[in-house]
Design goal:
GO terms for molecular function: DNA-binding transcription factor activity; sequence-specific DNA binding. Keywords: DNA-binding, Transcription, Transcription regulation. It comes from Mycolicibacterium litorale. This is HTH araC/xylS-type domain-containing protein. The protein is α+β, with helices and mostly antiparallel strands. The chain has two domains: 163 residues, Sandwich (Jelly Rolls), CATH 2.60.120; 55 residues, Arc Repressor Mutant, subunit A. 45% of the residues lie in helices and 22% in strands. It has ten helices and ten strands. The chain has a five-stranded antiparallel β-sheet, with no helix packed on it. A five-stranded antiparallel β-sheet has the order 2-3-10-5-8. Strand 6 and strand 7 form a beta hairpin. Helix 5 crosses helix 6. It is elongated. The termini are far apart.
Length: 280
Protein backbone atom coordinates (compact mmCIF):
# COMPACT_ATOMS: atom_id res chain seq x y z
CA UNK A 1 0.00 0.00 0.00
CA UNK A 2 2.95 2.31 0.55
CA UNK A 3 5.29 3.81 -2.05
CA UNK A 4 7.82 5.16 0.42
CA UNK A 5 7.99 5.23 4.20
CA UNK A 6 10.34 6.20 7.01
CA UNK A 7 8.15 4.38 9.55
CA UNK A 8 10.13 2.85 12.42
CA UNK A 9 7.91 1.42 15.12
CA UNK A 10 5.51 -1.39 15.94
CA UNK A 11 2.25 -2.46 14.31
CA UNK A 12 -0.36 -4.91 15.58
CA UNK A 13 -3.27 -5.93 13.35
CA UNK A 14 -6.61 -7.53 14.09
CA UNK A 15 -8.89 -8.54 11.24
CA UNK A 16 -12.68 -8.64 11.46
CA UNK A 17 -15.06 -9.27 8.59
CA UNK A 18 -14.90 -6.19 6.38
CA UNK A 19 -12.59 -4.35 8.80
CA UNK A 20 -8.97 -4.23 9.96
CA UNK A 21 -7.86 -2.74 13.30
CA UNK A 22 -4.27 -1.54 13.56
CA UNK A 23 -2.49 -0.43 16.74
CA UNK A 24 0.69 1.54 16.00
CA UNK A 25 3.53 3.12 17.98
CA UNK A 26 6.34 5.09 16.36
CA UNK A 27 8.52 8.18 16.40
CA UNK A 28 8.41 10.89 13.72
CA UNK A 29 7.96 9.55 10.19
CA UNK A 30 6.68 10.31 6.70
CA UNK A 31 4.63 7.83 4.67
CA UNK A 32 3.66 8.20 1.00
CA UNK A 33 0.74 6.35 -0.59
CA UNK A 34 0.15 5.22 -4.17
CA UNK A 35 -2.83 6.85 -5.84
CA UNK A 36 -5.41 4.11 -6.40
CA UNK A 37 -3.40 1.65 -4.25
CA UNK A 38 -4.67 -0.98 -1.82
CA UNK A 39 -5.83 1.60 0.70
CA UNK A 40 -8.24 3.16 -1.83
CA UNK A 41 -10.98 0.68 -0.98
CA UNK A 42 -11.15 1.69 2.68
CA UNK A 43 -12.49 4.41 4.92
CA UNK A 44 -10.13 5.05 7.83
CA UNK A 45 -10.76 6.12 11.40
CA UNK A 46 -7.67 7.22 13.39
CA UNK A 47 -7.81 7.44 17.18
CA UNK A 48 -4.82 9.31 18.58
CA UNK A 49 -3.87 8.14 22.07
CA UNK A 50 -0.96 10.53 22.59
CA UNK A 51 -0.41 14.18 21.73
CA UNK A 52 1.45 14.63 18.45
CA UNK A 53 1.18 16.68 15.27
CA UNK A 54 0.05 14.99 12.05
CA UNK A 55 -0.18 16.65 8.65
CA UNK A 56 -2.06 14.88 5.86
CA UNK A 57 -1.63 15.64 2.15
CA UNK A 58 -4.36 14.61 -0.29
CA UNK A 59 -4.42 13.71 -3.98
CA UNK A 60 -6.31 16.96 -4.61
CA UNK A 61 -3.23 18.90 -3.47
CA UNK A 62 -4.73 20.13 -0.20
CA UNK A 63 -3.21 19.63 3.25
CA UNK A 64 -4.89 19.20 6.62
CA UNK A 65 -3.61 19.40 10.18
CA UNK A 66 -5.76 16.93 12.14
CA UNK A 67 -8.13 19.07 14.26
CA UNK A 68 -9.25 16.47 16.80
CA UNK A 69 -7.93 13.38 18.52
CA UNK A 70 -10.03 11.39 16.06
CA UNK A 71 -9.68 11.73 12.30
CA UNK A 72 -11.53 10.27 9.32
CA UNK A 73 -10.11 9.72 5.86
CA UNK A 74 -10.91 8.21 2.48
CA UNK A 75 -8.04 5.91 1.54
CA UNK A 76 -8.45 6.87 -2.12
CA UNK A 77 -7.58 10.49 -1.29
CA UNK A 78 -4.41 9.94 0.77
CA UNK A 79 -1.11 11.01 -0.73
CA UNK A 80 1.21 11.52 2.25
CA UNK A 81 1.09 11.59 6.05
CA UNK A 82 3.76 13.19 8.22
CA UNK A 83 3.91 12.60 11.97
CA UNK A 84 6.03 14.89 14.14
CA UNK A 85 6.80 13.48 17.59
CA UNK A 86 6.23 10.11 19.24
CA UNK A 87 2.79 8.80 18.46
CA UNK A 88 0.48 6.02 19.53
CA UNK A 89 -2.76 5.48 17.66
CA UNK A 90 -5.37 2.96 16.65
CA UNK A 91 -6.69 2.82 13.09
CA UNK A 92 -9.86 1.13 11.88
CA UNK A 93 -9.89 0.43 8.15
CA UNK A 94 -13.47 -0.24 7.00
CA UNK A 95 -14.02 -1.85 3.60
CA UNK A 96 -16.24 0.50 1.57
CA UNK A 97 -18.00 -2.53 0.09
CA UNK A 98 -19.27 -3.48 3.56
CA UNK A 99 -21.10 -0.15 3.99
CA UNK A 100 -24.22 1.24 2.29
CA UNK A 101 -22.48 4.39 1.08
CA UNK A 102 -24.32 7.03 -0.89
CA UNK A 103 -22.68 8.59 -3.92
CA UNK A 104 -20.01 11.12 -2.89
CA UNK A 105 -20.78 10.55 0.80
CA UNK A 106 -17.09 9.93 1.55
CA UNK A 107 -16.37 13.46 0.35
CA UNK A 108 -17.76 14.71 3.67
CA UNK A 109 -15.25 12.78 5.79
CA UNK A 110 -12.79 15.62 6.35
CA UNK A 111 -15.52 18.11 7.23
CA UNK A 112 -17.08 15.65 9.70
CA UNK A 113 -13.84 15.43 11.71
CA UNK A 114 -13.96 19.21 12.18
CA UNK A 115 -17.71 19.43 12.89
CA UNK A 116 -18.34 20.10 16.59
CA UNK A 117 -21.78 18.48 16.30
CA UNK A 118 -20.12 15.22 15.27
CA UNK A 119 -17.57 15.14 18.10
CA UNK A 120 -19.70 13.14 20.60
CA UNK A 121 -20.27 10.42 18.00
CA UNK A 122 -16.61 10.49 16.97
CA UNK A 123 -15.59 10.06 20.61
CA UNK A 124 -17.98 7.12 20.89
CA UNK A 125 -16.51 5.57 17.75
CA UNK A 126 -13.02 6.02 19.16
CA UNK A 127 -13.97 4.30 22.42
CA UNK A 128 -15.37 1.24 20.62
CA UNK A 129 -12.42 0.98 18.23
CA UNK A 130 -9.78 1.16 20.97
CA UNK A 131 -11.74 -1.21 23.23
CA UNK A 132 -11.71 -3.93 20.57
CA UNK A 133 -8.14 -3.28 19.43
CA UNK A 134 -6.77 -3.30 22.99
CA UNK A 135 -8.57 -6.49 24.05
CA UNK A 136 -7.61 -9.38 21.74
CA UNK A 137 -9.38 -11.78 24.11
CA UNK A 138 -12.83 -10.45 23.14
CA UNK A 139 -14.86 -13.37 21.80
CA UNK A 140 -16.19 -13.62 18.22
CA UNK A 141 -19.77 -12.69 19.14
CA UNK A 142 -18.73 -9.53 21.05
CA UNK A 143 -16.25 -8.61 18.31
CA UNK A 144 -19.00 -8.94 15.67
CA UNK A 145 -21.29 -6.62 17.68
CA UNK A 146 -18.47 -4.09 18.04
CA UNK A 147 -17.70 -4.32 14.31
CA UNK A 148 -21.34 -3.71 13.39
CA UNK A 149 -21.51 -0.80 15.85
CA UNK A 150 -18.46 0.82 14.27
CA UNK A 151 -19.94 0.48 10.80
CA UNK A 152 -23.37 1.72 11.90
CA UNK A 153 -21.96 4.81 13.62
CA UNK A 154 -19.71 5.57 10.66
CA UNK A 155 -22.57 5.18 8.18
CA UNK A 156 -24.75 7.49 10.25
CA UNK A 157 -21.99 10.10 10.46
CA UNK A 158 -21.78 10.11 6.68
CA UNK A 159 -25.55 10.56 6.40
CA UNK A 160 -26.08 13.01 9.29
CA UNK A 161 -23.15 13.84 11.62
CA UNK A 162 -25.39 15.36 14.29
CA UNK A 163 -27.96 12.53 14.43
CA UNK A 164 -26.50 9.02 14.43
CA UNK A 165 -28.82 5.98 14.63
CA UNK A 166 -30.15 5.46 18.18
CA UNK A 167 -29.37 1.72 18.20
CA UNK A 168 -25.76 2.23 17.14
CA UNK A 169 -25.28 4.99 19.72
CA UNK A 170 -26.82 2.79 22.42
CA UNK A 171 -24.49 -0.13 21.66
CA UNK A 172 -21.46 2.13 21.51
CA UNK A 173 -22.40 3.82 24.77
CA UNK A 174 -22.86 0.45 26.47
CA UNK A 175 -19.36 -0.60 25.36
CA UNK A 176 -18.00 2.67 26.75
CA UNK A 177 -19.72 2.16 30.13
CA UNK A 178 -18.45 -1.42 30.48
CA UNK A 179 -14.93 -0.32 29.67
CA UNK A 180 -15.13 2.49 32.24
CA UNK A 181 -16.37 -0.02 34.83
CA UNK A 182 -13.41 -2.32 34.07
CA UNK A 183 -11.03 0.58 34.62
CA UNK A 184 -12.58 1.36 38.05
CA UNK A 185 -13.19 -2.08 39.54
CA UNK A 186 -10.16 -1.70 41.79
CA UNK A 187 -11.69 1.25 43.66
CA UNK A 188 -14.42 -0.89 45.19
CA UNK A 189 -18.09 0.04 45.00
CA UNK A 190 -19.13 1.54 41.65
CA UNK A 191 -22.36 3.49 41.80
CA UNK A 192 -24.77 4.01 38.90
CA UNK A 193 -24.60 7.74 39.68
CA UNK A 194 -20.84 7.85 39.07
CA UNK A 195 -21.08 5.84 35.84
CA UNK A 196 -23.96 7.95 34.53
CA UNK A 197 -22.20 11.21 35.39
CA UNK A 198 -19.04 10.07 33.63
CA UNK A 199 -21.02 9.46 30.43
CA UNK A 200 -23.23 12.56 30.65
CA UNK A 201 -26.48 10.62 30.97
CA UNK A 202 -29.06 10.26 33.73
CA UNK A 203 -29.12 7.29 36.10
CA UNK A 204 -32.45 6.32 34.60
CA UNK A 205 -30.92 6.30 31.11
CA UNK A 206 -28.04 4.18 32.40
CA UNK A 207 -30.41 1.54 33.76
CA UNK A 208 -32.43 1.63 30.54
CA UNK A 209 -29.19 1.13 28.58
CA UNK A 210 -28.73 -2.31 30.18
CA UNK A 211 -32.40 -3.27 30.41
CA UNK A 212 -32.30 -5.07 27.06
CA UNK A 213 -29.15 -7.06 27.81
CA UNK A 214 -30.67 -9.46 30.32
CA UNK A 215 -28.74 -8.08 33.29
CA UNK A 216 -28.89 -4.90 35.34
CA UNK A 217 -26.04 -2.42 35.61
CA UNK A 218 -25.26 -3.73 39.12
CA UNK A 219 -25.25 -7.34 37.91
CA UNK A 220 -22.87 -6.40 35.10
CA UNK A 221 -20.47 -4.77 37.58
CA UNK A 222 -20.54 -7.85 39.84
CA UNK A 223 -19.98 -10.17 36.89
CA UNK A 224 -17.05 -8.18 35.50
CA UNK A 225 -15.44 -7.95 38.95
CA UNK A 226 -15.77 -11.70 39.50
CA UNK A 227 -14.50 -12.52 36.00
CA UNK A 228 -11.36 -10.42 36.51
CA UNK A 229 -10.68 -11.91 39.94
CA UNK A 230 -11.37 -15.48 38.75
CA UNK A 231 -8.86 -15.00 35.95
CA UNK A 232 -6.19 -14.12 38.51
CA UNK A 233 -7.09 -17.16 40.62
CA UNK A 234 -6.20 -19.53 37.77
CA UNK A 235 -3.41 -17.52 36.09
CA UNK A 236 -1.40 -16.36 39.14
CA UNK A 237 -0.20 -17.71 42.47
CA UNK A 238 -1.29 -14.58 44.33
CA UNK A 239 -2.99 -14.94 47.70
CA UNK A 240 -6.79 -14.95 47.55
CA UNK A 241 -6.93 -11.91 49.85
CA UNK A 242 -4.57 -10.03 47.50
CA UNK A 243 -6.76 -10.85 44.49
CA UNK A 244 -9.89 -9.80 46.34
CA UNK A 245 -8.39 -6.42 47.27
CA UNK A 246 -7.02 -5.91 43.74
CA UNK A 247 -10.49 -6.13 42.23
CA UNK A 248 -12.34 -4.04 44.77
CA UNK A 249 -13.90 -6.58 47.13
CA UNK A 250 -14.39 -5.22 50.64
CA UNK A 251 -12.93 -8.40 52.12
CA UNK A 252 -11.74 -11.83 51.05
CA UNK A 253 -14.86 -13.49 52.47
CA UNK A 254 -17.07 -11.50 50.13
CA UNK A 255 -15.02 -12.65 47.13
CA UNK A 256 -14.93 -16.28 48.29
CA UNK A 257 -18.73 -16.32 48.73
CA UNK A 258 -19.36 -14.82 45.28
CA UNK A 259 -16.87 -17.21 43.70
CA UNK A 260 -18.44 -20.29 45.31
CA UNK A 261 -21.96 -19.28 44.29
CA UNK A 262 -20.85 -18.99 40.68
CA UNK A 263 -18.30 -21.78 40.29
CA UNK A 264 -19.48 -24.20 42.98
CA UNK A 265 -16.16 -24.22 44.84
CA UNK A 266 -13.86 -21.93 46.79
CA UNK A 267 -11.12 -20.07 44.88
CA UNK A 268 -8.33 -22.20 46.41
CA UNK A 269 -10.12 -25.48 45.68
CA UNK A 270 -10.84 -24.31 42.15
CA UNK A 271 -7.19 -23.33 41.63
CA UNK A 272 -5.99 -26.74 42.86
CA UNK A 273 -8.41 -28.51 40.53
CA UNK A 274 -7.19 -26.49 37.55
CA UNK A 275 -3.57 -27.25 38.44
CA UNK A 276 -4.31 -30.99 38.65
CA UNK A 277 -5.90 -30.91 35.20
CA UNK A 278 -2.90 -29.03 33.81
CA UNK A 279 -0.49 -31.60 35.31
CA UNK A 280 -2.33 -34.60 33.85
Amino acid sequence: MRDEASFMGSLRRRRLAGMTLISAKADSFVTSWREGGGLAGYIGLCVNQTSFVETVKYVSGTEQLLPHRIGLFDGAELLETEVMGSMQLTIALVDKRSMPLRRNSVATLRSIAADRHALPTLDLLGTVVTAVADNPGIGPAAAAIARDTIRDLLSCLLDDPANPAPRAVEEGLRVSVVRWVDDHLHVGSISPTAAASQHNISVRSLHRLFAGTGETFGAMVRRRRLEKAARDVVSTEDMIQTIAMRWGYAEAGQFIGAFKRTFGDTPMAYRRAIMRVADD
